[in-house]
Structures are given as C-alpha cells and as structure tokens.
Amino acid sequence: MSSERPMAHELGTADLQPTADGSLTLRSHRFGQTYGSAHGAETQARHVFVGGTGVAVQRRARVLEIGFGVGQNLRSTLVVCDRRPLDYLAYEYDPVPAEVLVQLSGGASGNGAGANHPVWQELMLAWPPPVGGELTIGVQEQRLRVRCLDVLSAELPQGWATTVYLDGFSPEANPELWSDEFLLRVAGALAPGGVLATYSAAGRVRRALVAAGLDVEKRPGPPGKREFLRAEKPVDRP
C-alpha cells in the first residue's frame, strides 16, 4: 500500500479467476498477485483466518481485518458466527468495483459460502465505502465497518480486537504492510488474549510479531502452503 491510489477501472470481471475449491478470486494488476489462494480462496480463509484464530467459538468476537480485499474472510466469518454477536472492522484502501464483488461472492457455482447472509446482502447494496470514510452495516447484534483509508497511517483501535486477520499482499509485493513498525501497531490493537493469524510464515514476519510482544507459533497450512502463523497476546500484557 502506497499513497498512490490506482484507478478502480483497472480491475474488472475479466480478472476473476476460479480457485481449486470452486471459489473465485481476483488478480491484482498492481501487485501481480491474486487476492486469495489459487489452491482454494475459501479454503484458505476457513483454515488460516477463521480456524487459526478460533473466532467461531468466541462469544462476542471483535475482528480487525487488515486488507478487506474481496470479502472472502468476512463471508467465511459470517458463516461460522451466523447470528451471534460480531463486531467486524476492516481497512481497505482500494475497494474493488461493486459488480466485481457481487460476482466474486457467488463463487464458481453461483452460491458462495456466506453470500446469502444478511450482513453481506446489506453490504452489496451499500458498497463501496466512501473515500477517506467508513461504510457501516448493522444487522441485529452484528456490525460491520469498512474504512476506506490507508491503514499505514490510519488510527487503529488500541487493545480492542479479540481477533486480527492480517491479510495484505505478500511481504515481497507490499513490504510496508509487514514492517516491524506497522506490525507493532497491529499488535497494539489486540486485546489481552487476542489472536492474530496470517497466511505468511516468513521469518521476518514471525520475528516482528515476537518483537511486538506476541507469542507466535507456526501451524500447518492450507493446500498450497506448508505453514501459516498464529500469534497471541499474553493476558498479562497491556
């Protein structure tokens, strides 16, 4: 993420790509990577982010997502949380066009997981978030906020998140998002006992999370990835 913002029309339905589990993803021209794993975008979301953080068993989950992208992690979270209390805050600097997001949520079969959830349906009606502002969706005890801001300079809620999804483009493609300084800020957004998950298992990412005061472990990855990182903030640290 740099301060230079690409034009929205650079992405279109022609950039949609099927992945191995039948879900769709999108290829970014700017970063030369897909938003989700070609080995299964939905599978990666369930395995790394939903499964890795244990969000499904949290009574009142507060999720901070770095890189909303095409909403795959949100949809997978809505499936497991169903109608339970959920507060979901995501940052996305370059929202994809609404028609692309609608197509992506359908999956290759036309019925992607989470696409029929009321929160997602409301989001599709209201997308995109205003530039420099926030889009808020509320359905009963579930709230979604998507902030169209550069997360590198945006204020993060301190000590708030029970769960963090760190899901930007790779450290090689987007190094600023994985710097020691930024990961220290992300760690500060975790509540004591909160858990962060990321698909990256790069050594420098692991070392930065350790330096930020988190207990970090490698876990077996989803298809196409040997490992991913899970990091927890000890309950005795602010």
Task: Explain how this protein is built.
By secondary structure, this protein is an alpha/beta fold. The protein is built from 6 helices and 11 strands. An 8-stranded mixed sheet has the order 6-7-5-4-8-9-11-10. The longest helix is centred in the N-terminal third of the chain and has 13 residues, at 41-53. Residues 1-9 have low confidence and may be disordered.
Please provide a brief summary of the model.
This protein is an alpha/beta fold and 238 residues long.
Please tag this protein with its features.
3-stranded antiparallel sheet; 238 residues; single chain; alpha/beta; disordered N terminus
> How much is the radius of gyration in Å?
16 Å
> What class, by secondary structure content?
alpha/beta
Helix and strand element order: EEEHEHEHHEEEHEHEE
How many strands in all?
Answer: 11
Largest sheet: 8 strands, mixed
